[in-house]
Structures are given as C-alpha cells and as structure tokens.
Amino acid sequence: EAKASGRGVSRFFEPGIESKLYARLELERDLRAALAAEQFELAYQPVFDLVADRVCGFEALIRWPHPERGLVSPAEFIPLAEETELIGEIGAFVLNRACADAARLPGDVRIAVNLSPVQLRTDDIVDAVASALQRSGLDPRRLELEITESALLEDNERIATLLERLRGLGTRLVLDDFGTGYSSLSYLRRFPFDKIKIDQSFVREMTTRSNCVAIVGAVVGLADELGMTATAEGVETADQLDLVRQVGCLEAQGYLLGRPKPILAAFELLRGAGSAKPTLPLAAVGS
Ligand code: C2E
Ligand code: MG
Ligand code: MG
Ligand code: MG
C-alpha cells in the first residue's frame, strides 16, 4: 500500500523533482559514509589584528572532498546535515579537530568554530564543547564560538542560558554575519557576545556605497562602546582594507589577507609572522 500511495504522490511532482529528490538522498547517503570514513577536513582562514599587523586567529571551515563530486561546499551540505540528524556528529568532529589543531599552534592565536543553529537546539552542545576542550587541553579563552543570528530567533530565554553556559566554560562568543538578521541590535542587548563579525556584504560595498562605510563605522563604534571587538569579514581588495582601517576596525579577514588553508599552511603562516617583516598584505598567498 505504501507503493500505491507513493505512486499517487509522485504524479503531482513536476518533472525533475524526482531526480532532485534522488540526488538529495544520494548526498545524504554519502554524508553518512563520509562521517564513517572521516572524509571531512578543516581549512583555516587567518584573521588579522590590524593594529599589530599580525595573525591573531584562524576560522575553522569544514571541507568535504567528495570522492566523485570533488569539493562539496558547506553551503550545500551543512543545510542537509541540519535537516538530518548528522549535524551533531559533524559538529563534534569540527570541535574536536579544531581544538586539537589549535592546541598545537604556537602562540596565543585563537581558533573560531562555527556552530549551527540546530546544534543549539539542545543543551548537548555544552558537553560537546567541554569535551573537545578537555580532550585537547586547549585554553578555553582561545576558542571562539561563532553563532549566526538565525540561531537566536526563537526561544530567547533558553538560548540566553545556553550561551551563558558556553561562556561559563571560558570560551568567547561571536555573533557571525552581523547585520543580516532580523533584529541584530536586540541580539546584542540580550546575549553575551564578545565579538561581532560584520557581514561581508557590508564590507564588499564599502568601496561603492558611502552608506556602507557609515554602517561599518557605526558597528565598529557600537562594538567598542559595548566592550566587544569587531571583525570585518570578506575583505577582498586593498581599497576595502583601507576603508576598514579608516573606520577604526581592529580585525579583518578575507581573501586579500589569506584564503582558508590546510593546517600545515596555517602553521607556516604563523612561523613566517615570527620574523620582523610585517605580514600585511598577504594578497596572492592563497592556499
Ligand atoms: P561563515 O562562517 O560566514 O564563513 C565565511 C565564509 O566566507 C567562508 O565560506 C569563507 O571561505 C568565505 N570567505 C572568506 N573570505 C572571503 C572573501 O574575501 N570573499 C568571499 N567571497 N568569501 C570569503 P565557506 O568556507 O564556503 O563557508 C560558508 C559557510 O558555511 C560559513 O559562513 C558557515 O556559515 C558555514 N560553515 C563552514 N564551516 C562550517 C562548520 O564547520 N560548521 C558549521 N555549522 N557551519 C560551517
Ligand atoms: Mg563564521
Ligand atoms: Mg561569517
Ligand atoms: Mg556566512
């Protein structure tokens, strides 16, 4: 009888939908296999301290080198992992690997890990973070947890308590993609963030729209007043970097400064930065 209703439903699908569904199922199957086979990798994008002209941290970004499809973008598979129950396991992998890698990096550089809104739906995330810290021995103050505004839409009381617990572990909380949510300012009022990452859409348009310069400048000033740091994301050109500096932003990240790269290349970058030569700009260093 399942067969009959299946056939009945499929008659209403537009052509192409079935093959899309099939492709999705296939991707989901591959995602499970990738977890089991530990196929995921992390790429590390440097974050620059614009005052000291040095690398002050890295953002861990997940990479999936698929055996047949090549590199699959997180923009494609993270949403799928969120719809299935796989994001918890993937998230735990990212936390464990990033903390272990960070613990081996020299100096006091920070490591930023992205948390999915789905990972914040239960309190399990507190144990996952605590366990990654404990296993790696990483100083919690070196771990930044990046949370996007979409995680904060609902259930404010519970999320606020959860974020306090994460912060209680000694980690720093970062509001990612700032300015793209529905109620960016109220999130700053309600939740205990240490850092704001200004979304790349604002940074990119600074060179063409003066209102974007004003917006980025205002966010930097706001962060400062609130005792937070602001990081400009997505800096791609020298002109953008100039403007970001001019409005007083203290940290920046983007292809101009460095692409996401394997841990060994991140390590090399830090060793290079130990020399007297200023490390900015690193255009064309690539990964
Ligand atoms: P995000 O956290 O905002 O990360 C920044 C994204 O912008 C990264 O894309 C990075 O490679 C890209 N980017 C950095 N600099 C530039 C630039 O100058 N120009 C442009 N055009 N792009 C730049 P990526 O690695 O493809 O990741 C996309 C999104 O996927 C991330 O956005 C994050 O939301 C999510 N993501 C990545 N890794 C993870 C992860 O481990 N866990 C979770 N839950 N989400 C992740
Ligand atoms: Mg991020
Ligand atoms: Mg971001
Ligand atoms: Mg983003």
From TrEMBL:
The keyword Transmembrane helix applies. Keywords: Membrane, Transmembrane, Transmembrane helix. Residues 24-274 form the EAL domain. This is EAL domain-containing protein. The chain holds residues 731 to 1017 of 1017 of the full protein.
